[in-house]
Specification:
Helix content is 51%, strand content 14%.
Amino acid sequence: MRGRAWPAAAAMLASLIASGTEASGSTAAADAAAQAVEPEVLIDAYGDSTTLGISCSEGHCAPQAQNAVAFLQDALQMHHGKRVRVVNYGVGGTMAMQLRDGTGNRRAGPTAGLPWRERLAASPAQIVLINYGINEVMQNQTPEQFYAAQTTLVETARSLGKEPVLETSNPMPDNRLNARLAAMVAMTRRVAAEQHVPLVDQFAYISSLPDWKTLMSDGAHPKPGLYRLKAEQDFQVVEPLVRRLLDGTL
């Protein structure tokens, strides 16, 4: 992605040509456009419905434009401009092992059904966010299965030159389910520590908020306000990585 012509520069060049600029002027404009090349950082966000951005109201659940991934992109672009883009690959009802194996992904796209290594190799993203755990609880996965899947996701990303960032799930209001989710969260923390990758511990952060359950739209999905708070936590971890990529030091 580095070295891609900055769109504004390309647009400026096209405008100059269209306005009848003579050959010498066009050459100068081309040189200016070349000098205006900016590095670009692309971030892929993978996860379940809480990555996709589902919220529920009056028994109806649907993806919302106000989700954590969108809020994160807004914050990053506020600091670094359009050079940074975050793509939301969240899919409701999915687990980490399905991302690893290329199964269970119902979203359209040429790489959606590919195993993780092939899919990620085809992506120009430099940073990869990974957020799972809730559906592992709902589908009776074991913490050990979750640990193995996340370890593979991280190791594969690293082997392909990507910077993986792990994120723990937001907590669940049901105490019984939340206790089981805590075991999954422990596995995410373990993988992050063992693999030395950045971690956004949403579970710990949200659990510390007073009356956090009132910020949930149902038993698993945040309201838009909580998605914004989640994005603020993401930003604290991701923005330094973006800055280092733009500076050429990562």
